[in-house]
Amino acid sequence: MTEVDRQTHRPPLPKQPTARAMSRSEDRLHDLDQLRATSPMIDAVIDEIDGRHVRVGEHWLVDFASCNYLGFDLEPQIMDAIDDQIRRWGTHPSWSRLLGSPRLYTDIEERLTELLGAEDTLVLPTITMIHMSVIPALARSGTVLIEDTAHKTIFDAARYARGLGATVGRFRAGDLDQLADQLAASRGGAPRLVCIDGVNSMTGNLPDLPAIAALCHHHGATLYVDDAHGFGVIGRRSPTETSPYGTRGNSIVAHLDMTYDNLILVGGFSKAYSSLLAFLAVPSALKDRLKIEAPPYLYSGPSPTASLASVLAGFDLNDARGDAIRARLHHHTARLLDRVRGLALDTPNVSGTPIVELPLAPGQDLAATAELLWDSGIYTTLAAYPLVPRSAVGIRIQLTAAHTDDDIDRLTSVLTTLATRGTFRAGSVKRTV
Q1: Reported pTM
Q2: What is the pLDDT of residues 231-248, one digit of tens each?
Q3: Where in the sequence is the domain holding 151, given as residue range(s)?
Q4: Do 199 and 117 sit in the same domain of this protein?
Q5: Pair 373, 365: CB distance under 8 Å
Q6: DSSP letter (8 states) at residue 45
Q7: Which pLDDT tens digit goes with each residue over 64-78?
Q8: Cα 136–141–143 angle (5° rounding)?
């Protein structure tokens, strides 16, 4: 690649896929395509919501597929805050951030920086945009090492970084010896970036972040953590906390009492805060560099005014009632996990976060399971191949503070019916939270 190519952010065009590669890709998508064609819980059109219930056509279901963990999407206080800002800024202040940022952006970054306890923050529209732009910018012609259970968008961004000259590798989750070997082999002065999930989007578990951070520090590598599902839910531990999730919802770094030394935290508002916005916690010098190198800052339009306004209102609500809301979320999650363990079902969740994955037993059919859930009025995420490995095909349940005890009762009743039919994989899991 020429220096001109690098300066203008124009990577070489990728090679066209071969017929064999296209055939393999189509084979991998066969299961998902079949499920989409047969199950109303895939690619559904939601016609109406009522609290945490949804209507698809004439069918009402309790929604356990939402990632609105704190229920901010339904809070009148947040809804009421939007109109004044739209009257002031219009529906969409359509400058790229390089040209001009509405004051809302800097207000958000100042409050977010304080909440996280970071040196500085930068907000951009989505986490996917951040990965695709920031990972290549940080890696340059160095090395990107990705934990094998990290979110797919991190792998997509690493493929783009590879096209720009980076070397990409992966390491097994929890295998610090393998990571250490790869870091040692990649010495030579070029940047090295280790990418992991914070709260994992499928298992709900936390990584051994202190050990990974210490290893990165020893080898002079930067640790890049995507805590999309942790931000807003888990936070700093405190003797006065209302639940084991901790206080303030200020993410995994604070929850594990760590610093941001050589660590970049990525998170989003689209889950716990129910708003279209994402962020990086970075040193101020790196923030200034990304303002020049990150395409979403240079070229993309901003998030809609309603999203920016709802983030600011979310900060106010989090300050006023956030810990009580997280206590309710933990209560619902603990009830579900107690029932799952009582049924002796296998779930990878040992951290007690509100993401509960239930893999199917061997020989069980996801489409048939989805049909029973649908008929019983339960709406969940269907974890189909190739979205997950074949060994992990099943359902993913997401709890929110907006659910009621009756909603949880209905869910556990349906899960009990499915368990008696041998639908889910048996197992036992120890509780850590």
Answers
A1: 0.91
A2: 999 999 999 999 999 999
A3: 91-303
A4: yes
A5: no
A6: P
A7: 999 999 999 999 999
A8: 80
